[in-house]
Design a protein that fits this description.
With 223 residues, the chain is mainly α. The protein is built from nine helices and no strands.
Length: 223
């Protein structure tokens, strides 16, 4: 399946439509209940879109500069920092509890749509970078690098949910990196870290593999 520019535009339109729908449903809930229980939805959607935007900018810059240039190196790090937000949204299901505010089914639909959008944007972002890797490396090495990215993102999801550390803390609270580094230094000393990271790694890897099989455009020409 060859991904043409038209296909990319259709994806953006579809993802935009789904995002708008989720925002509208969130607004409807606010109007009906007078509460902002799920106020994180617009924010998490924005973070997922930032990951895709950074991937697109990186791909564009790779046409003009080497990957190891400081500009593309910085873009790669920023992309890697924002990418986990796309899949982190799955953990937002823990907020869906019975309330007297509105039907629980409404909340399930609200969060399910958020998760569907987040995963779609995350896989599209990963796909763009994966395709660039294929221009420079053999398929097996390219896929191995993508799996490393998924592993890092999976650990970042654990850090975000359990340690309550977010992307912006890289700048605003660098001291929090000490807790993260302790988990990396002794991963098996924290079974929870291994379990959460492992579960997300398996889930994201399998789903992305299915996504890649469906969308794989063939090895692109080297630049």
């Amino acid at each position: 399946m060859n991904l043409s520019p038209g296909y990319g535009r259709r994806f953006l339109i579809a993802a935009g439509l789904l995002s708008l729908t989720d925002i509208v449903l969130f607004d409807v809930r606010v109007l009906l209940t007078g509460t902002t229980r799920y106020s994180f939805i617009p924010w998490n959607l924005a973070l997922a879109w930032v990951g895709l935007l950074l991937a697109a900018v990186l791909v564009r810059n790779l046409r003009r500069r080497r990957w190891l240039s400081w500009q593309n190196g910085l873009l790669s790090l920023l992309w890697l920092a924002f990418l986990p937000n796309s899949w982190y949204v799955l953990t937002d299901f823990i907020h869906v509890v019975p309330t007297a505010e509105i039907s629980q089914l409404f909340d399930i639909v609200l969060i399910s749509l958020l998760v569907f959008i987040g995963f779609g944007l995350g896989f599209a972002s990963l796909f763009l970078v994966h395709r660039e890797l294929l221009r420079r490396f053999k398929p097996l090495k390219s896929y191995a690098l993508i799996e490393i990215v998924i592993l890092i993102a999976s650990f970042a999801i654990y850090v975000g949910r359990d340690l309550r550390w977010n992307t912006w803390d890289v700048i605003s609270n660098p001291g929090a990196l000490i807790n993260v580094s302790n988990n990396i230094a002794d991963p098996f000393g924290n079974p929870r870290a291994v379990t959460v990271t492992g579960l997300f790694f398996i889930l994201i890897s399998v789903l992305y593999l299915a996504f890649w099989i469906f969308t794989y455009p063939g090895k692109p020409k080297k630049r």
